[in-house]
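Sample A.
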Amino acid sequence: MTSYTPEYLQAKLTKELDAVHVDVQDDSDGCGGKFSCTIVSGKFEGKPTLQRHRLVNSVLKEELKTIHAFSQKTFTPEQWKEQTN
């Protein structure tokens, strides 16, 4: 069990990635061990998916030591705009 909350992860990702949108879901029934998230950041511009995910993982390096499942969807602001229209 970890002590991380969706709110904590959302705040950290928003700050570190200058994200314009971050949605974090706790998929572990409250134990904090399994999360899925959607992140929209201009820092993803020009980067393939693998590089984006590595960037996110580097931001959450310490947290991922105890989180056992973490899925992510990463978008640039333009890609997000296309997704939500």
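Sample B, a different protein:
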Amino acid sequence: MSKESLTTIELEMAVLVRRITSIASNRKDDSLVRSAYLLLHQISVEETAGVKTLSNELQLDISTVSRQAASLEQKGYVERVPSPHDKRAYFYRITEIGLKELTQYKKLRLEKISKLLHDWEEDEQQNFGQLLKKFNYAIKDLSS
């Protein structure tokens, strides 16, 4: 990788993180915080998921996942389901209310992203999505 490319990527990543942080801290209209959104999304994908699985997938410590899942449970977005293999253990499953909230929140996010990329060509949007996905996997692999 050229030094010029690396320097550009490093700076643009810092700018991106700063701008996203700024937007996130100024928004009062979002009912789900990013961490709750990702946790709720992962539970919906897995159908039922335990704290350890969620911790591994989201690269968070178990206490953080437990705390966030308890918050989602208090809101009625998830419910505990006993493990069929170990009655002492349990999994989380998304509720109808949780699925509705997740769907609405995702719709708002997609609308905002659509506005940001409205003047991009379709191939630029596809390339950006693929490169972003590749980059996220690289980050996950690095920290595993």
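Observation for Sample B: Residues 72 and 78 are 6 Å apart (CA to CA).
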